[in-house]
Amino acid sequence: MKKTLFIIFLFIQVQSDAQITLPKVFSDHMVLQRDLEIPVWGNSAPGAHILAELGKSQATATADRNGKWKLRFPTFKAGGPYELKISESGKPDSEIRLKGVLIGDVWFASGQSNMEWAVQQAQDADQEIASANYPEIRLLQVAHDQQLTPQQDILSGKWKVCNPVNVSQFSAVAYYFARIIHKDQQVPIGIIQSTWGGTPIESWTSRDKLLSAAVTQKKALANDTLSQQHFVKDSLDLIRFWDIVYHPQHNTDKIIPEPKYDDASWPVVEMPRLIKDFGIGPYEGMLWLRKKLILPESFSGKELTLHIGHPEMNYSLYFNGKEVCKTKWNSEKNHSYPIPAGWQKKGENFVAIRLAMLWSGGGLNAPAEDMYITDGAARVPLAGKWSYQKDLEPGLPKIYNYHYYPFLLFNAMVNPVIPYGIRGFLWYQGEANESEAYQYRKLFPMLITDWRKRWGQGDLPFLYAQLANFKKVKPLPSESEWAELREAQTLTLSYPNTGMACIIDIGAADNIHPTNKQEVGRRLALNANKLVYKQNGTASGPLYKSYRKEGNRIRISFTNVPASLAARDGKKITGFAVAGKDRQFHWAKAAIAGKEVVVYCDQVSDPEALRYGWADNPECNLINSEGLPAIPFRTDNWKGITQK
């Protein structure tokens, strides 16, 4: 009995001595939201009376039985810096002081890799980083984390002042957006970045919301089989995964590239070619390739240049057993390398490549004429027969990527930030949901309504980037998952207080991460200035409004045409296709008629449907007088390829 009473006493003593703690979203240099009763919350001993001071304003709260408390300061105008002081009544030594606090506009930036893509990875990185001195822009980067239950605090992260040191690894899109809004509105700007590459929208939506809809209920319930141990094992396997990719195993890099290595039993494949064309089935692992070259006598004693084209994924390159480059990614620009004069031999020479075959990709992806070795005058082609072999190194462990699973990122990277006062949301995501494009019509509004309800600030502005053009240009009109996903994004504009940046003109066929993030940030800022800050101007390109048939022609009307329409290149308008009752689309001709476009096709006498920019990577060039691209659209509602 005495022991039990002693334990109870100790428990009460520990609880009563509990120190005040704040979530990591509160730190020095933070930005708090102006024109809003500012929420601040934390933990302390149960029943503790909390005193808080911000500038000349004070607020109080009493901790509940679990030690949780929340208070609100009255509204502030933009300004600062202030100091936030929080203490427990009667305990001056409990005081927390946060310095350099500004009052301004806070934006929550989220999504997958194109929102995560850092300033240092994007266009003009060196000069952008060097000039990033904006002491009134503050950045908070939420650390990657995944949890089975909603968390009260982020894993790590703190507010940082925007400068060349801090900006390099921050979201390029969010930074460029913040820079424009800061200059235009002349107020401090805070960005909370919560992003993770490759993630579907379901990862960012709460469990309760996912369970409320038939389209997502089954996926959400499947997570009930998970435990924290799954995450731990996956994390350890991921370390091993990248160790194999970046570090050749079993001394293969010392053995296989050697000219004397015997590859006579290896299969042979014609290059250039991607893994899906190898005939070896779906394979993820390290693949070795070798090619024998006979160099002309004229190459003797010269420094050569080896052009390897554009290898897919990650690779290392060797010439006559010597390492030319190691673990280079396909996203890097230069894939040409000098070969010192002393490396070549008379007669037979050997090129070897160690390729990481990842995520169903891999191979040598380039026109054959871009693969060669040269002395500057003559060329020896590298296209043709290559010997290859897999499984010469340990297999890559299977990675389950639990951060792709429903609601786990919401729990760890969104919920802990709620209800921090914000001005609105920035969103760039959708690539991971391309096969669910039709469902995205429901999934996207679900996330928007979910977040708005939980923040409790009404219909907070939700600004998002539409998917850019990507993948190979197709010569004929065809169906497209990416086009259907873009359509779902456009349809979401019917929800209140939403704005979309169309970027159909700044993507890249071979890069899912287009580098021109400045323009993405600018177009999101155009939407913010019009929708949120109520400035005059045009925030978007032409948006399809209606059509009417005139014989074999279709006349299209648009909104967001302040003055006129034009073709971006000043030539003929491209990107339109029409179909008759047979539903076979043909490229169409188009002519501008005032603020409308007239479309026709000699092969379709009685058009039933019209589409514009309807492709993965459409060649479309219609713009308004502000230079903003027309948003892809279709007039039909025929069943798409993602509609189950």
From TrEMBL:
Molecular-function annotations in GO: sialate O-acetylesterase activity
Domain of life, per lineage: Bacteria
Pfam families: SASA (PF03629)
Sialate O-acetylesterase domain mapped to chain residues: 105-224, 421-525
GO annotation (BP), single: carbohydrate metabolic process
Keywords: Hydrolase
The keyword Repeat belongs to this UniProt entry's keyword annotation: no
PANTHER family attached to this UniProt entry: SIALATE O-ACETYLESTERASE
Name the UniProt record assigns to this protein: Sialate O-acetylesterase domain-containing protein
